[in-house]
User: Fold this.
Amino acid sequence: MGAQYYGADSEDGDRIDDPSEDALFMMISDLNHSDNTFVVIRPDEDDPVWSASVAVLDEGGYEIVRRDTTRNEHEVTNATGIDDIARDLTIWMAARDFPGQPTRQVSDF
Assistant:
């Protein structure tokens, strides 16, 4: 059975369906400069409308890319704290739309 919402895939072939913040932390911690340089997180569907990735930078730290075509978002940031990256991605992904679920609406009330 595939992911209910999204999956995280690393360059070395590891995959976690619907990863928790802790699982993302572990996957990012396992990144290196030789054969496991990135992790991609996206919905488990043919043509995902959003994705996020974390890649190791040569000079240290990580590059985080977040894209959401339904919201016209494309953000690239750099960070060093794996715990902060995993938490921020978990929060960001929680605000995404998932197939088969109603679109979330933000209210100013």
